Amino acid sequence: MRKDKILVIIGGLLLLGVFAYPLWKITLVAPQYPEPLGLNIHINKLSDGVQFNDVNNIDLLNHYVGMHHLPSEDNVAKGVIEPFHEFTYMPIIVGIMIALGILFGVLGKRKLYLLWIGLISILGTLGMYDFYSWLQKYGGELDPNAILKMTDPNTGEVLAYNPPIFGYKQLLNFEVYSYPAGAVYFIVGAVILIALAWLLAPKQKN
Amino acid sequence: MKSIFKPLFSVVTASMLIASCGGAPTLGEKSKSNSGALSSGAAEKVYVKPGDHDEYYAFVSGGFSGQLAVYGLPSGRLFKVIPVFSQDPEKAYGYNEETKPMLNTSHGFIPWGDSHHPDMSQTNGELDGRWVFINENNTPRVARISLETFETEEILEIPNSAGNHSSTFVTENTEYIVCGTRFAVPTPQRDMPISEMKGNFKGSLSFVKVDPEDGNMNIAFQIRMPGYNFDLAHPGRDKSHGWMFFTSYNTEEANTLLEVNASQNDKDYIAAINWKKIEEYIANGVGKMEAAKYAHNTWDDDAHTATSVMEKEVLIIEPKDVPGAIFFLPTPKSPHGVDVDPTGEYIIGNGKLAAAMTVHSFSKMIKAIEDKAFDGEAYGIPVLSFEAINYGTLDQPGLGPLHTEFDTRGNAYTTFFISSEVVKWNVKDLTVLDRHPVYYSVGHLMIPGGNSRKPYDKYLLAMNKITKDRYLPTGPEVCQSAQLFDISGEKLELLLDFPTIGEPHYAAGCPADLIAPKSKKIYRLEDNTHKYVVKTEADARVERNGNEVHIYMTMIRSHFAPDNIEGIKVGDKVYFHVTNLEQDYDVPHGISMIGANTSELLIMPGRTETFIWYPKQVGVWPFYCTDFCSALHQEMQGYIRVSPKGSNVPLTYTLDDEVPGDEENL
Fold first, then answer.
1. I want to staple B508 with a disulfide (CB 3.0 to 4.6 A). Which of A9, A133, B118, B397 is the partner?
2. Residues of chain A with pLDDT under 50
3. B145 and B194 in contact (C-beta within 8 Å)?
4. Which of A60, A79, A80 sits opposite B557 (nearest CB)?
5. Which of A187, A198, A134, A124 is nearest to A162 (CA)?
6. B584 touching A, CB under 8 A?
7. Which residues from chain B sit within 8 angstroms of residue A63, using beta carbons?
């Protein structure tokens, strides 16, 4: 079997890691939280990032400033927040990309490899944009009856609490860190393998 | 303890002055300086910088407070007082409905105890950091405390005993803890003249079996010994594992003015008990079940509710039925502590009225038993010949030796109550190596693991009965204290004084890393099986059953659900069943109700507790969170409307004007 074909199939299968590891991790440190709170964002759910019950504990703190509830399984079950639809269709999309990876590998067409990379890049960009919008909505749409209503001392505007999409940001007493997690490395790995396959694959005559 | 020694103190001090005039060199050194920790470096050695952790835990008995205090060493900082035998309104121990059964006894509910000798569980003769056991002297009991939750999990009353002093003292694999009787009593109890004590009173020695899995305690057997006062105990170690040694005083069997009448015999006895042999006898049918009445109080951690069961019988062993298992080792003179070194060879009698330490040899004792080197018998129990068992005597090390602990280098450290000092001596050579004064009149001392096969011999904690001028005065009652020594070098170096709660008797200590990593942070709500738990706000409710009202309430930052209740009437009996829904570390909530005739509840995350309130006056009455839980702690409050008896106000309960659960209020 051709090396490039194998690489593409392995690349496609690498995306299985997306189901095993979180995509993103947000970590919150505060004087009262020397052991930080953590929020893992998976393809299909939220999970505790550092210790047991972190998701609920972050949710509990967020209510002081009037943020939306997190779309955790507990909160959805309680009916306090709409389910996050991405958690339903994102796994399907990833599943399709895995299937396409295998299919394209079997077909062994160079153009299809490029197509796969193109597709995943577009999906990744859309995913990041979606994530960014959610962070904006989550941190910006505040309950007018919030317990703590903080304003920016310079502008007088109501403070928003959207966490950074990448890197560090101070939000009140919390230092918030936001970085890609395990699943992202699987995606990057898949892209590298399939790009490599594209380089190795024999050029076809049309 | 104090009462025994105070008169003696003045008498012996006088005689010591006379002895000093005659030039007793061993006692002269100590008066040089009473300033203690002046040598450079002491401050650095005890300084634990802010945010750093101590190297050792010390579990120090609270004496007549009935509790157990948890300190850090070397800093001497107090972390927690674990309520054991006394009520503690701060933690609702003995006040809330869950813990009240822990303090039940055959005499009914007892709010106080006198805790004495903590000891830590062991595996293969080494500390394993699972449980601390501690005894209660006044109403004989022993308790087991979890070192994951730092809570009392079990209390077992000891029948046929009085003054449970020679306790707890854990064997090498935590097979047993023991309970000796300090005040001989008629056994079983009966109405008889006190003056007929001699020969009629008994001193029971109880062996309490500890379940290796869950730690549950049961009295395996009681040996019905002669009516001496059994004072302290120590299990054999290593080669002497399988034996337990008890000191006795008042072998005179005096029933009055014991300070004189119990101090007449030249020698009293250390009782040597071969418990492994007794186990064999029991397996062969020796022993008799006798009626007894004693409370056994156990704690279900998932339901976090105690149950008190009244036990009905106990297995009695008569010494005459177990030949070859019990011997007396004659020891001068009213020995207080008996201590066995880490190798198990040396059995040290701290003869409190003698100015000498008696060292018996375990191997010589075994040989004396084989050779039948007896020097008569007492109530049918063979008394071994002193010469046959004695390894040697350390003469004139100090006055009033009470207790000894050991290091890993063959040295013993003994406290001297009357001459108020700790003396370091070599057991094998019987030579004094160093001495250091303590302030004042030391009782027990503790080296972490110092009574096990593996002492952690860096620090020594001396626990003092008298402090006089050592601290700022606080009226006639001043604190008792502990003093920390560095024993890693050749000389004892005094590092630190710190006050203690109640009266520190014995203590148990261990390296922090044996316990800290497994210390529990929260209780999982999902594991909560309390009878009145509510796991979500939606289930919070109020139910009336006749004049009994049950409030199923939840607490989470920063509100109660429900927080407005109406329809309560004067004459009702109102149960608050309150669940802390938090699942975050160090977020307890408290609750109390104006006019409640009980303590607050202090509820840890994931737990449910109950108190009862009897509304007596019409009106609207508040309740609130008593533990500063969050930024909105001051807002964590609620109201109960109390209407006259027979009123028609309907029973309602709300949060934010809704019945909890009808709509989410967050």
1. B118
2. 206
3. no
4. A60
5. A134
6. yes
7. 666
Domain residue extents for chain A: 3-200
> Taking the domains of chain B in order of start, what are their residue ranges?
2-252+265-518, 527-654
Strands B56-61 and B507-511: antiparallel
Kindly state the helix (H) or strand (E) to which residue B249 belongs, with its residue range: strand B243-249
CATH number of B2-252+265-518: 2.130.10.10
B666/B658 Cα distance (integer angstroms): 12
* Contact by Cβ (8 Å): B127, B449: yes
In the three-class reduction of DSSP (H, G, I as helix; E, B as strand; rest coil), residue B525 is classed as: helix
Interface ipTM: 0.89
Note which residues in 129-188 of chain A have CB less than 8 A from chain B. Answer: 147-148
Reported as a single tens digit per residue, the pLDDT across B227-258 is 999 999 999 999 999 999 999 999 999 999 99
| CATH, domain range B527-654 | 2.60.40.420
Partner A contacted by B527 (CB < 8 A) = no
Record: contact B583-A35, CB cut-off 8 A: no
**By CA distance, what is A61's nearest residue in B?**
B557
**B583 in contact with A at a CB cutoff of 8 Å?**
yes
* Nearest-by-CA chain B residue for A57: B584
User: With an 8 Å Cβ cutoff, is B40 touching chain A?
Assistant: no
Given a contact cutoff of 8 angstroms between Cβ atoms, the answer to whether B369 and B323 are in contact is no
8 Å CB contact of B556 and A69:
no
Alpha-carbon distance B559 to B633, whole Å? 8
pTM (predicted TM-score): 0.92
Cα gap A158→A144, rounded to integer Å? 10
List the structure tokens of B103: 């303090």
